[in-house]
Design goal:
By secondary structure, the protein is of the alpha/beta class. The chain has ten helices and ten strands. The two termini are about 30 Å apart. Bound molecules: adenosine-5'-triphosphate (ATP) and magnesium ion.
Length: about 230
């Protein structure tokens, strides 16, 4: 199993926000965490990255416990993280942003430019001059350039125009076809369903429903019901 979270609890000061969260991400699959505002999707990703401490429970990555590691170590052992606030170096060009992130592995710059033709065209442009959608593409591309075995993406479509959301959907579908393991947090149910092998619904800090992407695409109503609780 690539990632296994077992009974993870997390809090911000006195506020308990994750309650015994347990789930797995199999190698080569895309797992989507869905749920409304404030249910704990981002906190789950931050806890995996070590940015929020797991107060109890365990997180294993490829069999190795990571719940007590520092964030930079977690990144170094192969987990990429694209946070909600797409961080790119705005003074650097697209190409320089990728160059500084690059680590050996299958995601070479050539392959990234093949999957992200819009970035290839603009490779000399300063990242600060890009649109929100282009910055999101670059944030994902930067993370891929580190060659993570697991890629965490938080709300990649938030605030983007429909045409950009469509391009991101194709991109994430391509990642999945190419065997990139991903954990996606999204309020955007349509986006999550278009790409997911497994869907987990969160409610008030707990995983309350699990289904396969296939079943959810065939009939969305059980999922929609759980989301509305
Ligand atoms: N830094 C923080 N300090 C205190 N409470 C926080 C902090 N960040 C998040 N919370 C609270 O923790 C809970 C879970 O928040 P989280 O951001 O994980 O939810 P989310 O599912 O990602 O929501 P959204 O869909 O809005 O992104 C919410 O009640 C939120 O208000
Ligand atoms: Mg969030």
């Amino acid at each position: 199993m690539m990632l296994r979270c077992e009974n993870v609890n997390a809090r911000y000061g006195p506020a308990h926000v994750l309650f015994d969260v347990s789930f797995e991400v199999p190698e080569g699959s895309l797992v989507a965490l869905v749920g409304r505002n404030g249910v704990g999707k981002s906190t789950t990703l931050k806890t995996i990255m070590g940015l929020v401490p797991a107060r109890s429970g365990t997180i294993h990555f490829e069999g190795r416990p990571i719940h007590r590691l520092e964030p930079f170590r977690i990144a170094r052992i192969g987990i990429g993280y694209v946070p909600e606030e797409r961080r790119v170096f705005s003074d650097l060009s697209i190409d320089e942003n990728l160059e500084v992130a690059e680590r050996p592995g299958p995601w070479s710059r050539q392959r990234i430019y093949r999957e992200f033709p819009a970035l290839a065209e603009l490779r000399a442009r300063r990242a600060g001059l890009l649109s929100g959608g282009q910055q999101q593409m670059l944030a994902i591309a930067r993370s891929l350039a580190t060659n993570p075995r697991l890629l965490l993406m938080d709300e990649p479509t938030e605030g983007l125009a429909p045409v950009i959301v469509g391009a991101l959907r194709s991109l994430v579908q391509a990642l999945r076809r190419e065997g990139q393991t991903c954990l996606l947090a999204a309020q955007d149910l349509h986006f999550a369903l278009a790409t997911a092998d497994q869907v987990l619904v969160m409610n008030k800090g707990q995983v309350t429903y699990r289904t396969s992407g296939e079943a959810a695409r065939a009939d969305m109503s059980p999922l929609a019901e759980r989301l509305a609780v």
